[in-house]
Structures are given as structure tokens and as C-alpha cells.
Amino acid sequence: MTSWNRRERPRRPVAPDRPDRVAGAVVGSAVGDALGAPFEFGPAGAYAARFPDGVGTMCGGGGWEPGEATDDTQMAVLVAESLLERGGFDPADLFDRFRRWADAGPKDIGLQTEAVLMSGDPWDLAAALHFQAEGRAAGNGSLMRAATSAVYFARAGRTATMDAARRIAALTHGDRAAWEGTAVLHELVRVALNGDDPLTAVPDTLDRVHGDHRERWATVLAPGWHPGAATEFNGAVWPCLGTALWALRTTRTFEEALSAAVDVGGDTNTVAAVTGALAGAVYGYAAIPARWTGPLHVPLPGFGNRVLRTAHLGALAQRLDGRSPSKRSASPDAHTPQNYT
């Protein structure tokens, strides 16, 4: 059984360079997604029970192949490709890509996201109309896809990255709570990519959260909060991000953080995807176990028979950061931070 009340542990000192952290954020999020997928909606402690020696693998299950990423990473790739091809945030283009993907029948899609995308309403009204009708729209679906946009906007600074997060989240989530949570994640990833500790940046980040939502976010991001204190299922935006910070705070390595996140149970792939984005930005790509990056693959329904692998995600990350990926030839399975192509 997962122990919620673990104390903060000193993290392993690492000093990866920015390209390594950038790749770590994008690949780390995808790894978390694929690692957690077979345990989705399962009980706490299932991951530790499956791997009692502590050496978890991409085991597959629940309809997922070993290493197969879900809708979390698929949508993150669509965000990345829209930003790069359109030269920035083009809401109509991104919404169209989301809708094309949803029309193709992905294996998994969030209920709220599906309702918005399949409503037939225009991009600038669909999420708001859904929220107006349902009265609730604070799922974690805008968090799960945020690793790529967090990298893309990081160099623009705190205000710009938080604002961009809100605008992208609002395409599918009408509740401002989801906008603010995604903005917090963007900013903490930005801090980590700069080589600083995202945990120490939480108070300043909360100062930039909308006043109507600041208190609730401060509660779940507080140092003493743990997943056992959650008042909602972790498919909601608050405990999802809160659990990711708890996992980062109470572990010392990328692998420990991801293992802790998955072992919480519930919406394991998204919680681990968010944890992976943060932990990857802190520890870097080189800290991600090769046994996880090797089988990682991302099908992209609605866009031909494309399947992205780790090398593709690493190269995509460098482009998002405004850098050309390394021209060094390498196998897609090579596990060195420079080998993204």
C-alpha cells in the first residue's frame, strides 16, 4: 500500500544542460503516460505489487501494448505540431486537429474532452457551452497534454507561458480551475528548464493564479499535502497536479517519482504523465531508464499510420525549444541525450 505521509527527501543533485531537460520534459511525460496506462483506474499499491523488486517495466495491459502512449501524449503531439507549423498558438487550427483526432476513434479519450470536440460547436464556443450546460469542467485533460506547450512557451517568460497555458486549456475546458492548473504546470516546467527547483517556485507561481482559485490551488500544492488528503478523484485537475508535486517532493530520482505517481492508483497514466513532465525537466532525459524509452511509441489516429517513438519525441522537443535537433545519426533506441534524430 502506498504511504502518503512520506517526508520530503533530498533529490539527487543533477545538472543536465537545457537540451537534456527539454527532452526530459517531453519524453518524460510520454513515458509516464505509457507506464501508467495499464494501471488506470486500479487501486493504490498495484504498481508496487506488480513490481515488488522496484524495477518496473513497460508491462502493457488494459488494452495497451507495452510502451504504448495514450490520448495524453497523442494530444500533446498535436499541440506541438500545431505550434510549430503555425508559428505559435492558432486556436482554430489546434481545435481542428483535436477534432480530426477524435473523429478517428482513438482507443481512449476523456469524456469531457470528447463531449466538447464532438459537439459540433465552433472552437471558440464549444468548451464554454459545455461548461454552461454541465456546470463542471475541471478534469485533468488540459494538464495531460501540456508538456509540449510548456516547452514551447518557456523562453517567453512567466507571464507569457502562464497565459498561453490558459488559452490552450480553454479550448476544451470551460472551468477556469483547469486553466489555472495548466498555467501552474507551465510555469513550474519553465523554472525547471532554467535549471532551478520548481518546488521552491510554487509560492511565487501561486501569486499569479487568479484570485478566485488561488486558495484551493495553494491547498493541494502545499508541502504537507499528500494524495490521501484529496477530496476528489485524481481525474480532477487539483489532485492530479498536487500528486505530481508530491511525487517529485518525496522522491530522489526520475524513476522513483514515476513509480510513486503510478502507485497512487486512479487516473494513473495522466498523473504519471504530469509527474513525468516535471521530473523530466528536473532530472533530464539521461535520467529516464532505457527500459522505458526503448518500447515507447505514440500512435496518432487521424493522421495516417504515423507512430512516433522516443527519438521523434526528443527531436520534437528540441524544435519546440527553438533549437535544431542534433544531426548526429543514431538509432531510435539510442539512450544518450544528444541522440534525438
Account of the 3D structure:
With 341 residues, the protein is an all-alpha fold. It has 17 helices and 2 strands. The chain has helices at 18-36, 46-50, 71-86, 91-103, 111-117, 126-134, 141-144, 147-154, 158-169, 176-193, 202-206, 211-220, 237-249, 254-263, 268-283, 290-293, 310-320; strands spanning 297-299, 307-309. Strands 1-2 form a two-stranded antiparallel ribbon. A hairpin with a 7-residue loop joins β1 and β2 (307-309). α3 (71-86) runs parallel beside α8. The longest helix has 19 residues, at 18-36. The protein is globular, with a radius of gyration of 18 Å. The termini are far apart.
SSE blueprint:
Elements: H1 18-36, H2 46-50, H3 71-86, H4 91-103, H5 111-117, H6 126-134, H7 141-144, H8 147-154, H9 158-169, H10 176-193, H11 202-206, H12 211-220, H13 237-249, H14 254-263, H15 268-283, H16 290-293, E1 297-299, E2 307-309, H17 310-320
Antiparallel strand pairs: 1-2
Helix pairs in contact: 1-15, 1-17, 3-4, 3-8, 3-17, 5-6, 8-9, 8-10, 9-10, 10-15, 13-14, 13-15, 14-15
What key phrases describe this protein's structure?
mainly alpha, single chain, disordered C terminus, 341 residues, two-stranded antiparallel sheet
Structure at a glance:
By secondary structure, the protein is mostly helical. The protein is built from 17 helices and two strands.
